[in-house]
């Protein structure tokens, strides 16, 4: 059986006359950690939004485990086991870290387990705490989200995304706005998470993803310029020319 989790098949995107993506095809396998990189305006966010179902491509399809999920409603995406985190932190600022994760865990139970809600709720607090520990926030469960450092807020968001135990995690610039220390912690966490699920991330900082991803997809002017290991990408003359400004 194929272990392809997600596939973009010949995806193109137009905004009016402007072609933001041209015929991109890529498959992502189980427990793969893959970064989508490229210079500003390359089409990374557009591709990410299509993969995550936020927007429908003009042409082409997105398949999840072989089923067409192109622009399915977001709740259907979540039900399939796909979670995502965007550049903008999406936590309830007035709630504590623990409350934020508890809400996410409860939503999962509400979705899958609503007939047994009372029994299910018994474990919710413990599950929320375990998720906080997973992302390195086990020591600050009571802190209001607004009072957490930026990196901790992103980690909190990650814990919320993990509440549904997704098979596929999509991360849009997970280290945006982070300090170097926070970035290192987040990258370590992402690497760990990818041992159990497929993780696809968009990242500006090429060096950063070179260290943890075994596969990089490079976009440029809406086209797929390269798709390969960090070694392949480093050695690719086209990539060096357009992305690194060398050549
Ligand atoms: N909704 C939209 N309407 C019109 N043009 C758009 C829209 N969204 C994106 N674009 C254009 O499509 C191109 C690709 O944008 P996109 O945001 O996907 O690139 P990116 O690689 O994520 O860039 P960055 O690294 O700067 O975030 C850009 O030229 C952008 O101006």
UniProtKB/TrEMBL annotation:
Presence of the UniProt keyword Transport in the record: yes
Pfam family, one: BCA_ABC_TP_C
Keywords: ATP-binding, Cell membrane, Membrane, Nucleotide-binding, Transport
Domain ABC transporter: 6-246
Signal peptide coordinates: none
Organism: Caenimonas terrae
InterPro entries: AAA+_ATPase (IPR003593), ABC_AA/LPS_Transport (IPR051120), ABC_transporter-like_ATP-bd (IPR003439), ABC_transporter-like_CS (IPR017871), BCA_ABC_TP_C (IPR032823), P-loop_NTPase (IPR027417)
Family annotation (PROSITE patterns): ABC_TRANSPORTER_1 (PS00211), ABC_TRANSPORTER_2 (PS50893)
Entry protein name: ABC transporter ATP-binding protein
One MF term in the entry's GO annotations: ATP binding
């Amino acid at each position: 059986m194929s272990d392809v989790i997600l596939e973009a098949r010949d995806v193109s995107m137009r905004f009016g006359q402007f072609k933001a993506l041209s015929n991109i095809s890529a498959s992502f396998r189980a427990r793969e950690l893959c970064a989508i990189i490229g210079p500003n305006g390359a089409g990374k966010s557009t591709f990410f939004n299509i993969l995550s179902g936020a927007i429908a491509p003009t042409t082409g399809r997105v398949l999840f485990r072989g089923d067409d999920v192109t622009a399915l409603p977001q709740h259907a995406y979540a039900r399939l086991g796909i979670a995502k985190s965007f550049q903008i932190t999406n936590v309830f600022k007035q709630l504590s870290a623990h409350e934020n994760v508890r809400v996410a865990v409860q939503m999962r139970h509400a979705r899958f387990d609503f007939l047994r809600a009372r029994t299910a709720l018994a474990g919710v607090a413990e599950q929320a705490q375990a998720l906080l520990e997973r992302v390195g926030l086990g020591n600050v469960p009571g802190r209001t989200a607004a009072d957490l450092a930026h990196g901790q807020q992103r980690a909190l968001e990650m814990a919320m995304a993990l509440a549904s135990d997704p098979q596929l995690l999509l991360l849009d610039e997970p280290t945006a706005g982070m300090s170097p220390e926070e970035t290192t912690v987040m990258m370590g966490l992402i690497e760990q998470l990818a041992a159990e699920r497929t993780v696809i991330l968009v990242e500006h900082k090429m060096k950063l993803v070179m260290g943890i991803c075994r596969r990089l997809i490079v976009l440029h002017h809406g086209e797929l310029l390269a798709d390969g290991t960090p070694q392949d990408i480093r050695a690719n003359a086209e990539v060096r020319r357009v992305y690194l400004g060398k050549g």
